[in-house]
Structure formats: C-alpha cells, structure tokens
Amino acid sequence: MLTLSPPFAYVLCAVGGYLLGSIPFGVIATRLGGTEDIRRIGSGSIGATNVLRTGRRDLAAITLIGDGGKGAVAVLLARWLFGEDAAALAGGAAFLGHIFPVWLKFSGGKGVATFFGTLIALAWPVGLLAGATWLIMAAIFRFSSLSGLTAAALAPLYMFLLGQTPQSKLWLAAFMAVLIFIRHRENIRRLLNGEEPRIGARAAAPGHNGGPPLHGDARE
User: Fold this and answer.
1) Cβ–Cβ under 8 Å, residues 138 and 116
2) Radius of gyration from C-alpha coordinates of the chain
3) How high is the pLDDT of residue 213?
C-alpha cells in the first residue's frame, strides 16, 4: 500500500478514477472497427447495445467489457494503493466519468455496465446479487431498463444486509443508484406509460440503461 497524505491520495483517486471512467470504449471500438460513428446511429448512445446495432457483436462485447472493466480497475488499483475508502472514491469517480466524460463534452452513457463492474470489484457478493437481480428481472419482465433500475435500487440494501465495510461502500452503492435513476428519467416515463420496448424489440428510441445486451436489444 502506497503511503501518501490522505488528501493527496483521495485527490489522486478521484482524478485518476474519473479519467479512467471517461474512456469511451464504445466510440473507440467502433472507430477502430471501421463502423460509422456510434453517436450517429440508433439511440446515439455510446453503450454496448447500441454498438450491437452496427451488427458487430465483437465490438459490442469489447464495449461491454471495457465499460464494466474501467470501474473495476479503478476500484482495484485504488484499493491496492490506498485502501478501501480510496477504492470506493475511485469507483464513484469512474462511474461519474462514464456518465459525464470530459472527452465527449460530458455526454456519456447511463452507467449500468460501469455500475456492475465497480460493484463487483468493490464487494463481489453484492455485485453478484445485483447481477442476479438484473437477470431475474430481465427474464420475467423483459425490460432492460427495469432490470437495471431494480438492481441499482437493491444494491444498497444488499450492501447493508451483508454488512459490507467500510460504510463508504454503502454510500457509493446509494450514490450510483440515485444517479442511475436520474439518468433513466425517460425510461421510467415510458415504463409508466407502457411505451418502453421490451428486450429484443427493434425500437431505436433513445434511453437504454446501458446494461448487458440480450437478444439484440437495440436501446443503448
């Protein structure tokens, strides 16, 4: 563990985590893969399921792994250098970086993939429970957005019930859940109005939650 004064260590984790989270894997993967600008097709989002609409499953997989992995790397690196509280701070910063990336004029994704990557690295039992929640909800209701929202809402409860320490982990889970709900305002409106396309639908309206692509979901 690296020995630095707490203020400097936390600033380093916050800045480093944010910059790591700001890496737009969807944009990079599609450009290197020779497809058109992902922001100009489908929903215009930079997430994996909009990348999937290019017909390139390999690029979608790279995007999904990259978006989840950057949150995990931020947490693991900060933990190795400075400990658990720093890990939570770095994970939160990476999550913010994905949603508000400096490289894309602060217009990024909705954060669910990065949420899962961060959560698994921060407290893997909670991450697995949240992932299972996503899968169960998707299997029953077939709404990707609802699955992500439910997983995000329950993550702080899982963190509390499993007694994960330090408390910064619980606060981070709650922080990410609140931002995910804010970023899904339009999805929530469509769910309430019965207008939200189900997983596998061909609709290209904006507002996908950024979760794992299933059966050609075209909403990220």
Assistant:
1) no
2) 17
3) 42
Per-residue pLDDT of 36-74, as tens digits, reads 888 887 667 788 767 877 878 899 899 999 999 999 999
Number of separate helices (H) and strands (E) present in the chain: 10, 0
Q: Strand, coil or helix: what is 215?
A: coil
Q: Where are the domains of the chain?
A: 6-193
**SS3 of residue 199 by DSSP:** coil
Give the C-alpha distances (Å, rounded to integers) separating 132 from 4, 47, 66, 77, 135. 38, 21, 20, 26, 5
Amino acid at 141: F
Which H/E stretch holds residue 57?
Answer: helix 57-82
Paired tokens of 75: 């947490």
Instruction: Find how far residue 92's CA is from the centre of its chain.
Output: 11
Q: Do 42 and 60 contact (CB within 8 A), yes or no?
A: no
CA distances from residue 120 to 32, 91, 117, 153 in whole angstroms, order as listed: 28, 11, 5, 16
| pLDDT < 70 regions, the chain | 1-3, 42-43, 49, 200-220
Q: Which amino acid makes up residue 46? A: I
At 220 the pLDDT is 38
Residue whose structure tokens are 């409860």 = 157
